[in-house]
Amino acid sequence: MKYLTSILILFTFLLFSFSTMLAKDITFVGSKKCGMCHKKDSAGKQLKIWQDSKHANAFKTLQSAKADSIAKGKAVEDPNCLKCHATGYDLDAKMLGKDFKIEQGVQCETCHGAGSGYKSKKTMKDHAKSVAAGMVEYKDQKAVEAQCVTCHNDKSPTFKAFDFEKRWAEIAHPVPKK
Ligand code: HEC
Ligand code: HEC
Ligand code: HEC
Ligand code: HEC
């Protein structure tokens, strides 16, 4: 009996160390990496759609006189601006891959989750595996909207109104049906 308990404790310990090890391994790779496989017209050119959207420019927007005047200081150094205008600004450098650049603003991984775990082709082709490896799953349109309004809300100093359906149509980037 005692023997069994020790084995159980050891097993739980190993499982725990293994899962924290995995968690540590997940890093933000940056939109450029995602774009390597998501740029062809035939696959839906998600990279181009994102680059042409204001999300790709959200950090650069903070590098303006207008932004500094809203922030009453350096907007690019203000966490109260960065939290909606950039990905990963508050993370340890260990969590950021070598191609990750904060200048890319609101990136693929802001909405899809840090990608080092799911970005391989084999994993990406399998929805369940991608989710298990850290990809965010959206159950329905309500869940998508809920994600948008974490930033598109009246905490934004320049907020007007957010019409989800209209705004989503402007940045939607589906994989074309075969
Ligand atoms: C090595 C190539 C590759 C890389 C790198 C890659 N993807 Fe993918 N991704 C794919 C393939 C292949 C699919 C399957 C759909 C398709 O055929 O276009 C896919 C599917 C997806 C889907 C839909 C998955 C689903 O099951 O709903 C999302 C979202 C996605 N990728 C986001 C990303 C993000 C974000 C990154 C960067 C962190 C990334 N991808 C990097 C190849 C890649
Ligand atoms: C809660 C999220 C959020 C916070 C916090 C936030 N922003 Fe924004 N910001 C947005 C969104 C969303 C937009 C896009 C405007 C829209 O579509 O409603 C935006 C747009 C802007 C724009 C361009 C729009 C324009 O009228 O010129 C500037 C400049 C800007 N923000 C500066 C700042 C500064 C400076 C801070 C910090 C003091 C800040 N933002 C904090 C979400 C936020
Ligand atoms: C991490 C915060 C964040 C999230 C999440 C987010 N956005 Fe944004 N969005 C921004 C910021 C910041 C801007 C303004 C960027 C700028 O002007 O530089 C913006 C701008 C936009 C614009 C351009 C607005 C304009 O005035 O032209 C659209 C469209 C948009 N977002 C749609 C969406 C949709 C749809 C979702 C959900 C799927 C979403 N956003 C999720 C932060 C966010
Ligand atoms: C503002 C948030 C946001 C950003 C930024 C963003 N996406 Fe998405 N993406 C979404 C949402 C939401 C969906 C739809 C999920 C759903 O309906 O299941 C989606 C869907 C996808 C799909 C699957 C489409 C399909 O038809 O199955 C791919 C692939 C994808 N995104 C890749 C990317 C890549 C690559 C980037 C960066 C170049 C990116 N996304 C940037 C929010 C975003």
Can you give me a brief rundown of this structure?
This protein is an all-alpha fold. Helices cover 47% and strands 0% of the residues. It has a single domain (30-171), classed as Flavocytochrome C3, Chain A, domain 2.
Q: H/E series, N to C?
A: HHHHHHHHHHH
| Number of DSSP-assigned strands | 0
What does the average pLDDT come to?
91
The portion of residues assigned to helices is 40-55%
| Reported CATH architecture | Orthogonal Bundle
* Contiguous runs where pLDDT drops below 50 for at least 5 residues: 17-21
Distance between the termini: 58 Å
Structural class: mainly alpha
CATH fold-type name: Flavocytochrome C3, Chain A, domain 2
Classified by CATH, the class is Mainly Alpha
The tally of structural domains comes to 1
Tell me the CATH superfamily.
Flavocytochrome C3, Chain A
Work out the helix count: 11
In percent, how much strand structure appears in the residues?
under 5%
Report the biggest beta sheet as strand number plus sense, adding barrel if it closes. Answer: none
